[in-house]
């Protein structure tokens, strides 16, 4: 919880929300800013790939890092470290029935074959941050708390589009809904039990990590659940020049990237057959029908993560990775739905409640004990 006077709780993020399926009028400043970034991103894509390759070591270290994280995850789950990985390769962002084209994987398959690639989302899009962003969350690696689901290990690398260098020292906010489509930290109609005021103080499935010298941040979470009108996704914000508090929380009013990452539809379908996801009664929106994902695909960007199974099936956990581009010279306005303070969560009455799609309408529980005050990053 952030030690902020209540009068400043809302001032740290004076932000405007875009709509979930943005339909901004031609000439709208936010639309122009987004279009400018997309054009710059597309121009820079080839240059950055070539530059990173010339420098050498960036991709190679990425392969080794992902392989090491997967091995550590297997060890933590008492899975065989020498078992072959099962990988799916993304062929088409909106292909809802694609299969792996990688065959003959064995326990001797080189890590470069399994963990190479940064997807085509090397230079990522700017999208809405959604209606349930909470400012001042904990800096920590494990954000699961008491939430049940398929364990999800995520490796995100940020690349500065201006320099083609890894973006180090960036605090990345990472949050998503639980297995039944409910967000912690926000009390709102449709977000689980709207009469449960205690959810305002919950922090599960939210957390920040600072990128290292390679521009990398990692988390242990669960695979996100779905809610009505949106495909399964995770929200990401990239912060600069914020304040890290002694109790392990972080606050910043500078946002250099607002984005969302998505998952292969075949993977979503498999996860949704397991508990507690199968108990989610909300309508499932596929990738093909998601407005934000469709918009990004039309702009030539693939925001779907690459992944491998840690064991023989999805219940043994997943390792995912993606690279995203940010422009560290620009800053975006975002509005927090709430702020986590020393006295607990404080709702922002001016948050607007828009962006990211209609609020989830599931009946999933909104429970979870607050984490320790010490950072676990």
UniProtKB/TrEMBL annotation:
Q: Where is the Intradiol ring-cleavage dioxygenases domain?
A: 139-231
What GO molecular functions are on record for this protein? ferric iron binding; oxidoreductase activity, acting on single donors with incorporation of molecular oxygen, incorporation of two atoms of oxygen
Query: Signal sequence span per UniProt?
Result: 1-20
Q: In which residue ranges is the amino acid composition biased (Low complexity)? A: 362-377
Record's protein name? Aromatic compound dioxygenase
Q: Which UniProt keywords apply?
A: Dioxygenase, Oxidoreductase, Signal
Q: Which stretches of sequence are listed as region Disordered?
A: 343-377
Q: Does the keyword Oxidoreductase apply?
A: yes
């Amino acid at each position: 919880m952030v030690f902020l006077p209540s009068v400043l709780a809302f001032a740290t993020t004076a932000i405007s929300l875009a709509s979930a399926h943005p339909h901004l009028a031609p000439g709208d400043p936010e639309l122009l800013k987004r279009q400018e970034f997309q054009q710059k991103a597309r121009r820079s894509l080839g240059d950055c790939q070539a530059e990173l390759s010339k420098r050498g070591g960036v991709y190679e270290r990425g392969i080794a890092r992902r392989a090491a994280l997967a091995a550590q995850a297997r060890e933590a789950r008492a899975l065989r470290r020498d078992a072959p990985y099962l990988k799916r390769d993304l062929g088409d962002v909106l292909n809802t029935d694609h299969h792996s084209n990688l065959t003959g994987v064995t326990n001797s398959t080189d890590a470069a074959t399994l963990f190479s690639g940064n997807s085509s989302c090397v230079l990522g899009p700017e999208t809405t941050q959604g209606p349930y962003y909470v400012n001042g969350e904990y800096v920590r690696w494990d954000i699961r708390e008491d939430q049940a689901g398929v364990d999800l290990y995520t490796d995100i690398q940020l690349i500065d589009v201006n320099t083609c260098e890894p973006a180090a020292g960036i605090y990345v906010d990472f949050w998503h809904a639980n297995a039944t489509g409910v967000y912690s930290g926000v009390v709102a109609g449709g977000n689980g039990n709207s009469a449960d005021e205690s959810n305002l103080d919950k922090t599960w499935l939210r957390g920040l990590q600072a990128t290292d010298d390679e521009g990398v941040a990692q988390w242990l979470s669960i695979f996100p659940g779905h809610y009505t009108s949106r495909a399964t996704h995770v929200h990401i914000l990239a912060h600069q020049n914020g304040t890290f508090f002694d109790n392990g929380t972080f606050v910043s009013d500078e946002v250099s990237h607002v984005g969302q990452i998505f998952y292969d539809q075949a993977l979503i379908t498999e996860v949704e057959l397991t508990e507690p996801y199968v108990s989610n009664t909300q309508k499932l929106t596929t990738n093909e029908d998601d407005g934000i994902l469709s918009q990004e695909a039309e702009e030539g960007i693939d925001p779907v993560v690459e992944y491998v199974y840690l064991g023989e099936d999805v219940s043994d956990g997943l390792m995912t990775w993606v690279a995203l581009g940010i422009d560290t010279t620009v800053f975006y306005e975002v509005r927090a739905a709430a702020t986590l303070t020393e006295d607990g969560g404080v709702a922002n009455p001016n948050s607007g409640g828009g962006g990211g799609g209609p609020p989830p309408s599931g009946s999933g529980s909104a429970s979870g004990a607050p984490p320790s005050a010490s950072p676990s990053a």
